[in-house]
Design goal:
This protein has 2 domains: 15-57; 59-94. 68% of the residues lie in helices and 0% in strands. The protein contains 4 helices and no strands. It has helices at 16-28, 33-56, 60-70, 75-90. The protein is elongated.
Length: 94
């Protein structure tokens, strides 16, 4: 078969998770897994804070109620939420 007839397979497309990791690496340069995870956690916190301010007038309660109404939590997730709420009520760090 002539060379021009052979098709090179397309390189695999990165998943959304892989792209997220790549963005952190492009921004920060060489990083450890811990650095990437910390960066992702900080980004999520900023996004949730911004969402609460912009869409819910700064109300965490409204944000959580809307989130649970839109995507109901499983029983284990509700247990985890209750545990976090109990910790917050006692003043324990999460």
């Amino acid at each position: 078969m002539p060379k021009q007839m052979l098709r090179q397979p397309k390189p695999p497309r990165p998943t959304n998770a892989e792209l997220q990791i790549l963005r952190v690496l492009w921004q920060r340069g060489p990083s450890t897994v811990r650095d990437v995870t910390a960066s992702e956690a900080a980004t999520r916190r900023r996004m949730v804070t911004d969402l609460a301010k912009r869409a819910f007038g700064g109300s965490t309660v409204r944000l959580v109620l809307h989130a649970l109404a839109a995507t109901p939590a499983t029983a284990p997730e509700l247990d985890q939420i209750r545990k976090l709420l109990d910790e917050k009520k006692k003043g324990e760090p999460s």
